[in-house]
Amino acid sequence: QVRLTESGGGYVQPGESLRLSCAASGRIFSINAMGWYRQAPGKQRELVATISSRGTTNYVDSVKGRFTISRDNAKNTVYLQMNSLKSEDTAVYYCNAQIRASISSSGVDYWGQGTQVTVSS
Fold it and tell me: Tens-of-pLDDT digits for all 121 residues of the chain?
């Protein structure tokens, strides 16, 4: 089975930085798009950033210029570099990947377990 394992969350002050990592393991033929979502208390889960297999990126407006998504295909890993963090970035962050288990398999969405990011003075 496929598993996504997240790391890198923590408690930081406004203006500081964090880097999240998410590594996929298990039966993997290929990984298509990867992304990061977040959910704050009382709010809907929102898409933060995505990156295609070719490296094309997209970001929600609120993080543009501050966050950078990247991937290392050799390690089946996606990263989210978060700079100039604000209190409104506080949320549980989830990684997502669309993965094919074999050449004959369709892509299936997988989710990480979530990692808490807290930004507070």
Answer: 899 999 999 999 999 999 999 999 999 999 999 999 999 999 999 999 999 999 999 999 999 999 999 999 999 999 999 999 999 999 999 999 999 999 998 999 999 999 999 999 9
Q: Which residues of 46-56 are buried (b: 16+ CB within 10 A; e: fewer)?
A: eebbbbeeeee
Q: Return the closest-CA partner of residue 22 out of 65, 71, 67.
A: 71
- In sequence order, the 6+-apart residues with CB closer than 8 A to the CB of 30 are 53, 99, 100
Q: Which of 96, 87, 91, 113 is nearest to 39 (CA)?
A: 91
Q: How far apart are CA 93 and CA 67, in angstroms?
A: 13
CA distance 2 to 55: 22
